[in-house]
Amino acid sequence: MPQVAAPLRRLLPLSQTLAPAPLLHLSRRLFAFSSPSFGRPSSLLALAYRGQPGRRHPQPRRGSSTLRKAPKEEMAGGGSKEVAFNRKRAEGNDGRQRGSMELKTRKLNPVNTTCYVQILGTGMDTQDTSPSILLFFDKQRFIFNAGEGLQRFCTEHKIKLSKIDHIFLTRVCSETAGGLPGLVLTLAGIGDEGMSVNIWGPSDLDFLAGAMKSFIPNRAMLHTHSFGAERNASQPKDSVIILDDEVVRISAMFVKPKYHNGAGSLNDIDLKPGDTAIVYACELPEIKGKFDPAKAAALGLKPGPKYRELQLGNSVQSDQFDEMVHPSDVLGPSIPGPIVLLVDCPTQYHMAELFSLQSLSFFFEESLDQRESGKKVNCIIHLGPSSVTKAADYQNWMKRFGATQHIMAGHEIKNMEIPILKGSARISSRLNYVCPQLFPSSGFWSVKPANDVMENDKGTSSEACGSVSAQNLLKFHLRPYAQLGLDSASIPSLFTYKDIVEELVSEIPEVREVPEQVRKFWQNNANIKNIPPAGSRMLIVEEPWIGQKSDKLDDGSQKHPRDNQEIPSCVEDATREDMEITFLGTGSSQPSKYRNVSSIYINLFAQGGILVDCGEATLGQLKRRFGVNGADEAVKSLRCIWISHIHADHHTGLARVLALRSKLLRGMPHKPLLVIGPRPLERFLNAYSTLEDLDMQFLDCRHTLKPSVEAFLNENITGPATPQLENTMFAPGSRMENYNRKPASPRDTTALANFKEVLQESGLEILYSVPVVHCPQAFGVVLRASEKVNSAGKAIPGWKVVYSGDTRPCPALIDASRDATVLIHEATFEDSMKDEAIARNHSTTKEAIEVGTSAGAYRIILTHFSQRYPKIPVIEEVDMEKTCIAFDLMSVNLADLPVLPKVLPHLKVLFKDELVVEEADEMQEAAAVY
């Protein structure tokens, strides 16, 4: 790779982690790599390697540093520019005095040769978000709705984000806008100046923008445009034109729910801002008639630029006569431009208002206006759930549009069997084949009707209306006119678990032996837990540690691995219903093809569950792991959600989870869900709660430090709980003192009382936060289960799980991890990138392992890997004696901890030909020119 020497603050790749300057002020540090052969040490034995199976050393990567330039991106006006993700700029910390980012400017093409609408099926398989719709033109792109997972979907299917000019929301809620913060932040780091988009929505959008500004700096490009508060008197009362240029006219129609009160009449007293739905009408300009050269010649025109002007609708001067030539003189009859409607009718309460929209009546087949104008709706995309769109009244309303193509893009059972993220489903299924004990089959392979989805999806009434079910990447062509209609060519091929396994076995024949080898670990787990009589030998399946010397007993049997640590009693006496850790996201910064952003679900079974961090698409991952109904049950039984810090990749999935829980428990007796996090998170949640009912109670992490928690657990709360900060990072006189609040308010005291109940109901002895070294108000967390009595009447100490959050190795976390049963530690970078880990206040794999080793943790699980490691990170296998790498949707049961480190070396056969790639390469690819 070429020599690179540039300030880190200017060329750091994009991260969604937004915060003030890092704690140790190392982000401005400069370092250069003068050797073109810079890479990881030649002695590194990587699990991720390429080449022949017998090869000991991986080939050098394309680059070990993220100080790099991305591929060139074509500019709209010609030429090219270098594209580099700039984290500092996205954070608003690049030192520039700029109020907001510049919007892209494009030279429109009034005679578009290509135009279509396309289904971007975000959330269709998991039922957690509304699908997105792409309206494509030669020089412009529009997206309708940006639910969670949109970035992963676009990365998977090569949809280029940098070409998006406008995003429209059919509703302002987590279902339609949950992916908006991550998308906005990704665009902010692209190119020299960053990119931005216009975001459109009803007046409710102002609430969302205000909430997002609590963690997105003002410089970062929130170009929001709300409409509907004031309407032009000349327009229909239920419609407003929001965009009108030579390419397309987009108008919005407002649909509000109507609820019956006790007297039987309709009212909207109970409306929340997020309840308003929007119907968008996209009208393309009329298609000019065919140009007649003979008529042009007769009127004295010579072939040339004037022909073009006439085709564009402009009059020109005759070359031979003293007269003007008008387009109607040389063009045949025009054809009305195609029209597409996007209809979002989320509930039955919206139907009455939708059916009575005056603006839509112009498009009805029997309408006099339609007959006079010749305008006809060519395609209607229905975003409402099938429980609404299958209703008889809705079907009758659809018939009023005549011979229109209807695309049913709402939630239907049949869509749940088709994984949206094919790459992620493929790797999860391969892991399941090799080790089903840690990688249970995904929820989407066995489908049962969801709670809000009707079972009669295959009704015949919709077929009479000319409707089809939406599929991923289904297109409806609008231009050229000769291709008007549906196009299924881009729809990904269907696949099953069986197909994936057959492909795997064909590609890697030696993998056939691995499942049986792995199965023996669980077969022998009971023997491993029970210490054999003195003098006896325990036969253990040989472990394939690469480069590790065989160490056998005299009789030829294998010794225990060097991890001779005694099995903790909480593990030895564990049942499979005690505790299980499921990793919902194991990547850093932004979602990628194979790894979602940070989220961990701790399943306490009969005692509920706890979410630790909640990055974007956490709910979708829960549904992929447990199925739609299983995830709903997990959400309903949540005891609390703990958030480590305010960076967007750790909390932007929170609103979606809280909103769903509120909906699922509506009308049932329950308490608000306790959310523990940094204080800035409360500002976001409070602002967002104006849009949707989140039904939560907030508790500041600083009031859950160990001294405070121990104090109020041992004493009755008779007064304000004052955190004891003398020995913490927030101690008086420290640099963090300004981030400390004064004694807790009565609201915090109430939350603390609720916190105590949560511990009791969860079977936890204690849960406390640990300040760590990453950004202001960044924390790790310790969870320790209560003591239990086994069948023999012996008291067994509870398990202890520690999660680092994002951090550099620090004494506070090491001390908190003493004798942990499981330490889950971030390992963002490989060992050769320690300088970058220091600069960004993250840890390397070796540093994370050393934290657990020095603390005496029984098992260490590494997570939060840089997206430069798309499938498996680089790690020295000699460090893996009691360590495991986390994968998305991996579930680790407390009873399985003894065999956990033995599995990973067997998994490497799946990744033997994988190449470690540059961080965010896939995101750059998704952001490049279409």
UniProtKB/TrEMBL annotation:
CDD domains: RNaseZ_ELAC1_ELAC2-C-term-like_MBL-fold (cd07718). It is an enzyme of class 3 (hydrolase). It is found in: Mitochondrion. GO terms for cellular component: mitochondrion. Residues 50-99 are annotated as: Disordered. Pfam families: Anti-Pycsar_Apyc1, Lactamase_B_4. Its main location: mitochondrion. Its EC number is 3.1.26.11. Keywords: Calcium, Endonuclease, Hydrolase, Magnesium, Manganese, Metal-binding, Mitochondrion, Nuclease, Transit peptide, tRNA processing, Zinc. This is ribonuclease Z.
